[in-house]
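Throughout our pipeline, every protein is held as a single compact record rather than as scattered files. The record that follows is passed on verbatim for readers who wish to inspect the format:
___
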Amino acid sequence: MEHSNNMLRHDIDKMISATLHAVDPRSAVQRHLRRQDATLRLDGKLYDMTAFDSVILIAVGKAAVPMATAARDIVSDRLTRGIVVTKYGHADAAAGLLNDPRLTVIESAHPVPDANSMRAGQLVSETLTGLNARTLVIACISGGASALMISPYPGIQLRTMQAINDALLKCGADITEMNIARSRLERLKSGGLVQLAAPATVIGLILSDVIGDPLNVIASGLTNHPAAHNVLVANNTQACEAAAEQARALGYAARIVTTELRGEAAERGREIASAILREQPGTCLIYGGEPTVTIHGPGKGGRNQELALAAALAFGQHPESPACLVALGTDGTDGPTDAAGALTFPDTLARAAALKLDASACLDANDSYHFFAPLGNLIMTGPTGTNVADVVIALRL
């Protein structure tokens, strides 16, 4: 199969678009939460809204704005007040929420919390204190919430929380390990949000960014409690399935290899490159999950960019078997960068050499961003409004 870079980019862009569309948070909430007159339905469970004097909306995470918008529109006139907490830059599409006097929108830091994260935790705690049984709390939870909203136990300072988060990130801890540690330090995590709201009724709409969708790990288990009715509205599997469907529509023989991709990003990149090179031309392999990076160098990058760089090096050893790979963070931000990830073409290493870019040195320095940027091979989506971990698409050409 002959493919120019422009043809490949066209196919990749269509796959990325299909991937993100499948896990659009607003549509995901609308699929599961419906209202007819005074009856609210969350999947198979019905709630008589006349039984509640007040309805409170709490939305936290990178997908908080679209999820909150959908929930607000559904409960409509019954909404009393709410708090929406998201990452800096993710509230740009929140005009409708910002103009609603019932709602407070807060932007805070991720992956290391800041003062606004503390403020968000305080406001949510205050909003949920002293509720009664005639209150309904709708909690829209998505990835990133663990850092975006913190409420540490008395005596634990913000700087302590920041130091712990920073250390976990640098040592290559995965999201499960990070969120278990975070939940030990805070009052709202591990079901604390539900306990604080008692005896109010709490329903949780969960957008998963964690492998296997464990409710005790997603957002550090804010609503993980038997007293809450939690529903998973979107996850990484749905994103991968959409990518595979689009790949087939474009003529590729596509299959999902795993939705449990984890471990060191560079190692996974080399393994995925080896796997796709063994396939017949026209094959598409799809991987979902969230690898990690143990930082050894002073460079700039993210797990998806590092995975793509390691794959590019592996592809360069087999020029007779052309292949392409894209690694995407579905939230639109890969590590501490403005890129969602990166892609490789068959000529990536040759083009890099012409620019005197040393791929191996960049990988050793964890400097994948500055390798891909001059090549124009960074994926720049901006904040996508969703967050279901990562998707890697490999093509044998």
Remarks:
- The domain at 24-234 is CATH 3.40.50.10180 (Rossmann fold).
- The two ends are 6 Å apart (CA to CA).
